[in-house]
Amino acid sequence: MTELSLNMDEYLPLRDVVFHTLRRAILTGQLKPGERLMEIHLAQKLGVSRTPVREAIHKLELEGLVTMMPRRGAQVAQISEKGLKDVLEVRRALDAFCAELACERITPKEEEELKKACKEFEEAVKIGDPTLIATKDVAFHDIIINSTGNERLISTINNLAEQIYRYRFEYIKDASQRPRLMEEHRTLLDAILNKDLARAGKAARIHIDNQEISILSQIYPEG
Amino acid sequence: MTELSLNMDEYLPLRDVVFHTLRRAILTGQLKPGERLMEIHLAQKLGVSRTPVREAIHKLELEGLVTMMPRRGAQVAQISEKGLKDVLEVRRALDAFCAELACERITPKEEEELKKACKEFEEAVKIGDPTLIATKDVAFHDIIINSTGNERLISTINNLAEQIYRYRFEYIKDASQRPRLMEEHRTLLDAILNKDLARAGKAARIHIDNQEISILSQIYPEG
DNA sequence: ATTCTGTATGTTGTATACAATATTCTTTAA
DNA sequence: TTAAAGAATATTGTATACAACATACAGAAT
Question: What's the whole-model pTM score?
Answer without folding.
Answer: 0.93
